[in-house]
Design brief:
This protein has 148 residues and is α+β, with helices and mostly antiparallel strands. The chain has three helices and five strands; from the N terminus they run E-H-H-E-E-H-E-E. It has a single domain, classed as Histidine kinase-like ATPase, C-terminal domain (Heat Shock Protein 90, 2-Layer Sandwich), CATH 3.30.565.10.
Length: 148
């Protein structure tokens, strides 16, 4: 019998000081799930980048903006969604959404503008990255657990 996914949710003010709360929560969850140290560190950088995008871009004129984070714990993976209801950035200009070929695949850091580095890092560190833009932006980050 397959175990159901478990969900842990967190809503934080869209402030730089709160990004560490997201990283610490991720650390506790991923450590409990048995992820390797390297995978945990990669995920901490990716979630910090996703949250940082919200802090810097989503709420330019709304000091009450929030970062909504969901951790979906599954038997073999951890999926993290970081979403906001603020201003979206032009992700579709970076490439097709949902494609196996990521917008920055095969490019060097010199080929990427400063504004796109966060997405580049997330794609480099996670096994799967998806971006949805309807009301605000939702970034879904997935890391598969390798047997230890």
């Amino acid at each position: 019998m397959r175990a159901e996914k478990r969900r842990i949710a967190l809503t934080l003010p869209a402030e730089a000081e709160c990004i560490d709360i997201a990283r610490l929560t991720l650390y506790g969850i991923s450590n409990q799930m048995g992820f390797s140290y390297e995978d945990i560190e990669d995920m901490k950088v990716a979630i910090a980048e996703a949250c940082n995008n919200v802090v810097l871009h989503a709420y330019p004129s709304d000091p009450q903006g929030t970062i909504d984070i969901e951790f979906w714990l599954n038997e073999g993976d951890l999926t993290i969604t970081v979403s906001d209801s603020g201003t979206s950035f032009a992700y579709e200009e970076l490439g097709e959404l949902g494609q196996a070929s990521m917008p920055y695949e095969g490019k060097t850091l010199d080929d990427i503008s400063a504004g796109g580095l966060g997405i580049y890092l997330m794609q480099a560190l996670m096994d799967r990255v998806e971006v949805e833009q309807e009301t605000g932006t939702k970034v879904t980050l997935t890391k598969y657990r390798t047997s230890v």
